[in-house]
Amino acid sequence: MPLTSILVGGFQWVNLANTVYLRNGVQTDFIDNEESLLEYLVASHLLSPDEKDRLTPESRSQIYRLRDLFRRMLTDITERQLISETDLEKLNDIGKKISLEFHLVREVQDITSKITGKTKGDQIIFEILASFAETFEKAGMDRIRSCSHEECILFFVDVSKGGKRRWCSMESCGNRAKVSNFYSRKKDN
After folding, report:
1. Which domain, by its residues, includes 53?
2. Domain tally for the chain?
3. Which of 70, 84, 97, 146 could cross-link with 78 by S-S, CB 3.0 to 4.6 Å?
């Protein structure tokens, strides 16, 4: 499966959770080694190609822990509309371990703030955690969904105006479902 096929969640934390997917009915881990993790981080714009050597083993380990925690949380959200206090505490514990710097930046006549991690790993984890919070500011728990295709385990955040999105991607799962329905109707006639 090409990497772009799993970057359908709409938010960094959901895309990270989607690095576990089904391939021919078997659960597959896209980031099962350091090289594929770095490829994912570059494709997600969390790391530039020249920064690949700046990610420590501890940061990589934290990213894997975040991914597993987010997958469990997404399942709870889509099945029960619930985030457990225990899972929230685990996210906060991960957040407490990162070091951040606050900067004021002049842009022509405006002054803006910028928060950066002291290390590249801290920056990546901060951006992923910030995307988690941003999801609830922009969408809400009821817009977090799992793909409706029976052979897909990907998640997404429905930010469509109507809120009726059903598929992780229209190009893959939506199209497969439409083709299946077409042949089913044709067979019945």
Report:
1. 3-98+129-188
2. 1
3. 146
Query: Exposed/middle/buried for 87, CB within 10 Å: 0-12, 13-18, 19+?
Result: middle
DSSP state of 54: G
Full-model pTM:
0.87
Closest CA to 78 of 179, 169, 162, 168: 168
Q: 156: part of which helix (H) or strand (E)?
A: strand 155-157
Does residue 91 lie in a domain region?
yes
Rounded average pLDDT per 10-residue block, the chain, 189 residues: 78 96 90 94 94 90 96 96 96 95 91 93 96 93 93 92 89 68 63
Cite the DSSP H helix spans in the chain. 12-17, 34-43, 57-80, 85-96, 120-138, 175-188
- Whether 98 contacts 63, CB under 8 Å: no
